[in-house]
Design a protein that fits this description.
Elements (H helix, E strand, L loop, with lengths): L1 H35 L6 E4 L2 E8 L4 E9 L5 E7 L8 E2 H10 L3 E7 L18 E3 L2 E4 L5 E6 L4 E5 L1 E2 L2 E3 L5 E3 L2 E2 L8 E4 L13 E7 L9 E12 L11 E6 L1 H7 L6 E6 L1 E2 L5 E6 L3 E4 L2 E2 L10 H5 L4 E6 L3 E7 L12 H11 L3 E4 L8 E3 L2 E2 L10 E2 L1 E7 L3
Parallel strand pairs: 14-15
Antiparallel strand pairs: 1-2, 2-3, 3-25, 4-30, 5-29, 6-27, 6-30, 7-8, 7-21, 9-10, 9-21, 11-20, 12-13, 12-19, 15-18, 16-17, 16-18, 17-19, 22-23, 22-26, 24-25, 24-26, 27-28
Length: about 400
């Protein structure tokens, strides 16, 4: 038995020596392979922020990533409109130049929300939630939005407008939206951010009211005096310190009984309450929730075709320590085909994001870093957009 054990032990030693010799011969080859694997060259664009690009054959995919550390006092992430008003669009290159010329220092940006692209009276109107420096410029819809609170906290949720306008007789009417087309039987509130004037709509009643002591915010109560009443099919100027209420159908009947000199109380609210919102940008659908892939397209009224088809994509992901701004080029055979939302969500999870949201993509997808567009937009030009997420550097 002892001899048998010793022989078995010797045989194990011989096999082990052979394995180690083969590993020793393979080790230089393995090291060469490891060293030859592409490692993205990270470009530090500001303390706490880096940019890099990835190329992956399985798409093929050309991916651009901006990695921003949270809590860096010299970095600030915010939202800017593509122009001074809602109904304006401009390329991210021009938007960035305008912000820089106003005295701000920005180092990067990506395109933001979906918007009305077709030419017409409401071209440029963002589809979803938009808040710029605490000012409510576009009300939310049933799709996800990214919000940034005053303390820098980020969250993704589906918000809804909970707002009403009340007459002096105590009766009130629900607001359908802020800075948008007025639906039938509804009332919308137009602020100076909408445009310099209203857009005519048939069978509507329009009230000019004011003054405003501050911009309309996502949460607040505003008492204004009615200054003028007009039919909605005429274009009415919106002065800087005024608001316009436009009603159609039942909304027109509600506003029609108001006369010049009457007071109106507009109560603005967003549900669920998220805290003091400094910036918000709409998108959809949500891609990650609590660290797991959660493509919530059906809940947000987004088609399965949009989920499953490869397109150029723009997205934002984050975790407890980092924020990731990501673009993926697409519709360019042999260079980059684009991603479907399953692939995009998986990539954001791979980066380390625990929460993520899809933004507008397609020809709108743009990554601007340090004065240059770093991706290859699928239209062959930098498309005009409604709003953007911008990374600023600031003095703490």
């Amino acid at each position: 038995m002892t001899v048998a054990v010793n022989r078995e032990s010797q045989m194990k030693d011989v096999k082990a020596q052979g394995i180690f010799r083969r590993l020793g011969r393979l080790l230089p080859v393995l090291l060469v392979i490891a060293w030859s694997m592409p490692v993205p060259a990270q470009e530090q664009i500001a303390p706490g922020a880096s940019y890099y690009e990835l190329s992956r054959a399985e798409g093929p995919w050309a991916i651009q990533v901006l990695d921003m550390q949270k809590g860096v006092p010299t970095l600030d992430l915010g939202v800017e409109l593509g122009g001074e008003h809602i109904l304006e669009i401009e390329p991210l290159t021009r938007l960035a130049g305008r912000i820089i010329s106003s005295g701000h220092h920005i180092v990067a940006g990506i395109n933001g929300d979906f918007y009305i692209l077709q030419s017409g009276p409401f071209q440029g109107d963002p589809v979803g939630f938009c808040v710029v420096n605490g000012e409510l410029v576009s009300s939310p819809i049933s799709r996800s939005a990214l919000v940034i609170l005053e303390d820098g906290t980020l969250s993704i949720d589906r918000f809804r407008l909970s707002s009403r306008v009340k007459r002096t007789d105590g009766s009130s009417f629900r607001l359908s939206g802020v800075n948008q087309r007025c639906p039938g039987n509804g009332i919308v509130l137009l602020t100076p951010r909408f445009n310099t004037s209203t857009r005519p709509q048939e069978n509507a009643v329009v009230l000019l009211a004011g003054p405003l002591s501050e911009p309309i915010r996502p949460e607040g109560t505003y008492t204004v005096a009615v200054l003028e009443q007009h039919p909605g099919d005429t274009e009415l100027a919106i002065p800087p310190d005024r608001i316009v209420l436009m009603g159609r159908g039942k909304g027109a009947a509600f506003l029609g009984s108001v006369t010049a000199g009457d007071s109106l109380v507009c109560t603005i609210g967003i549900e669920p309450s998220a805290g003091t919102i400094r910036h918000a940008v709409g998108g959809g659908p949500r891609l990650l929730r609590n660290g797991e892939v959660s493509i919530e397209a059906e809940t947000e009224g987004i088609s399965q075709t949009f989920v499953d088809t490869r397109h150029p994509r723009t997205a934002v992901g984050f975790n407890g320590d980092h924020i990731f701004l990501v673009t993926v080029d697409g519709r360019q055979k042999g260079y980059s085909e684009g991603m479907n939302l399953h692939e995009l969500a998986s990539f954001l999870k791979e980066l380390g994001a625990t929460e993520a949201i899809n933004l507008d993509g397609g020809g709108s997808t743009t990554m601007w870093v340090d004065g240059q567009v770093r991706n290859r937009p699928s239209d062959g030009i930098v498309r005009s957009i409604a709003n953007a997420l911008i990374l600023y550097t600031v003095t703490p």
